[in-house]
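debug: dumping io for the single-chain case to check the tokenizer round-trip. Nothing else runs in this session.
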Amino acid sequence: MQTGMPGNRRRSTRIAALSSPVTETMPTIPACPQCTMENTYPDGENFVCADCGHEWPMQGAASAAEDDATVVKDANGNALSDGDAVVLIKDLKVKGSSITLKMGTKVKSIRLVGGDHEVDCKMDGGSFMLKACYLRKA
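debug: decoded output
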């Protein structure tokens, strides 16, 4: 019996050593500011997006990402803000409905929200969330 005991003790110490918590954390690499994909990697003094090939410096990555997230621009590059009036530049089909939002329709009093569809608005057909790339400031 005593010959089996030392072997069991060794196994238990090995298991305890493997299950100890790891204190190192991986550095966070930001998502691409151009395509918003998270498939990025550091390369020298720049971050590089593997999906779109965009490169940006490591120093200003955090501040630039925060600034870009708050500014929403229309199709012409004009900054939009809450309460603006905009015009549709293209006919838009509404998913799950037979409604089509016609080009040239003026939308008053927009509201900016986060996410893929940055603009929340109310029209005669109902309430819609639209992408800013299909709008221009009126």
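debug: round-trip ok. The chain has a mean pLDDT of 80.
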